[in-house]
């Protein structure tokens, strides 16, 4: 099948703007929704373009582009919350009652929140790093500090330092990748979203809110996740270090953990074949 960018791109008009996405796989196959992460120049296509062909062999795949990252129309609100609501709007519009989901980093947090609030909509969940609290490692992590530095005052050198923190093998940070990410990162919607998530002022406000709020953080409610969950992690993740996996592994009732050696934050890219094998087996059970 043709899983190129142009062959798979779609758009859906909703009451809160256009949601753009990529679609591949047999319409008779079970649905699989792929949720992207955050960071400069990120899109769902860039996160999962290398995996779409594999998963489309067994599932009807939807790579959803979250609002505010320069592809789908931006909406007001915190990016994690607007991403979750966009997934529900997307599923409702296409008549998808329930689906398995794969979420990279922030996408994993979105998936966890959906599984807590809408348990009947998430059949299975795969997360790629990013979920849970730092138990032993510093918070913010090295990767998040570099991301914050870039967000506060973007330049190409800071982008390169952040990209290098995302991977175990720095050979993956090619000139082509740097240019692609830089071009997308300076999109006005993407810059505004980054400020809401990672800017120094926004981070300080979030910490103040958490210290004074009676609302528990999402990870304290992970015991409410009912669906089978596979946590995947790079052993050398410098953005969300592997000790973060211990809380979701213990709290989610039906969770398992797969850690990939010689791998950073982008497990689906850096450990592509092993990741696809592990996730494919999990989804087929």
Topology:
Blueprint: H1 5-8, E1 9-14, E2 17-24, E3 31-35, H2 44-48, H3 52-55, E4 60-64, H4 79-94, E5 99-104, H5 106-117, E6 122-128, H6 142-152, H7 156-165, H8 175-185, H9 188-198, H10 200-212, E7 229-234, H11 246-251, E8 255-260, H12 267-270, H13 272-284
Parallel strand pairs: 3-4, 3-5, 5-6, 6-7, 7-8
Antiparallel strand pairs: 1-2, 2-4
Helix pairs in contact: 4-5, 6-7, 6-9, 9-10
GO molecular function: monoacylglycerol lipase activity
Domain AB hydrolase-1: 30-271
Pfam families: Abhydrolase_1 (PF00561)
Structure summarized in a few sentences:
Keywords: Hydrolase. The protein has 285 residues and is of the alpha/beta class. The chain is 42% helix and 17% strand.
Strand content: 15-25%
Number of strands: 8
Computed over alpha carbons, the radius of gyration is 17 Å
- Structural class per helix/strand content? alpha/beta
CATH fold annotation: Rossmann fold
CATH class bucket = Alpha Beta
- The level of helicity is 40-55%
Could you describe the largest sheet, including whether it forms a barrel?
A: 8 strands, mixed
- Strand order, biggest sheet? 1-2-4-3-5-6-7-8
Q: Report the uncertain regions.
A: none
Query: Termini separation (Å)?
Result: 25 Å
- Assigned CATH superfamily: Alpha/Beta hydrolase fold, catalytic domain
What does this structure look like?
The protein is an alpha/beta fold and 285 residues long. It has one domain (5-136, 217-284): Alpha/Beta hydrolase fold, catalytic domain (Rossmann fold, 3-Layer(aba) Sandwich). Helices cover 42% and strands 17% of the residues. The protein has 13 helices and 8 strands. α6 runs antiparallel to α7. It is globular. The two termini are 25 Å apart.
């Amino acid at each position: 099948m043709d899983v190129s960018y142009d062959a798979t791109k779609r758009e859906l008009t909703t009451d809160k703007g256009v949601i753009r996405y990529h679609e591949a796989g047999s319409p008779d196959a079970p649905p699989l929704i792929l949720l992207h992460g955050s960071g400069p120049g990120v899109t769902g296509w860039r996160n999962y373009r290398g995996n779409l062909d594999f998963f489309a062999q067994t599932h009807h795949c939807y790579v959803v582009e979250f609002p505010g990252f320069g592809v789908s129309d931006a909406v007001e609100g915190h990016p994690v919350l607007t991403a979750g609501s966009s997934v529900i709007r997307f599923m409702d519009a296409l008549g998808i009652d329930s689906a398995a989901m794969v979420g990279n980093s922030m996408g994993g947090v979105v998936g966890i929140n959906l599984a807590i609030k809408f348990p009947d909509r998430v059949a299975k969940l795969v997360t790629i790093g990013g979920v849970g609290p730092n138990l032993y490692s510093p918070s913010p992590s090295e990767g998040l500090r570099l991301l914050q530095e870039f967000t506060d005052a973007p330049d190409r050198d800071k982008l390169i330092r952040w990209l290098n923190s995302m991977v175990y093998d720095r050979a993956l940070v090619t000139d082509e990748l740097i240019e692609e990410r830089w071009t997308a990162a300076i999109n006005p919607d993407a810059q505004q979203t980054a400020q809401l998530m990672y800017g120094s002022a926004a981070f300080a406000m979030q910490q103040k809110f958490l210290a004074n709020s009676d609302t528990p953080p999402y990870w304290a409610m992970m015991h409410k996740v009912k669906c089978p969950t596979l946590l995947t992690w790079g052993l050398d993740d410098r953005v969300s270090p592997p000790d973060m996996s211990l809380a979701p592994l213990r709290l989610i009732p039906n969770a398992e953990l797969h850690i990939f050696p010689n791998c950073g934050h982008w497990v689906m890219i850096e450990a592509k074949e092993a990741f696809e094998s592990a996730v494919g087996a999990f989804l087929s059970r």
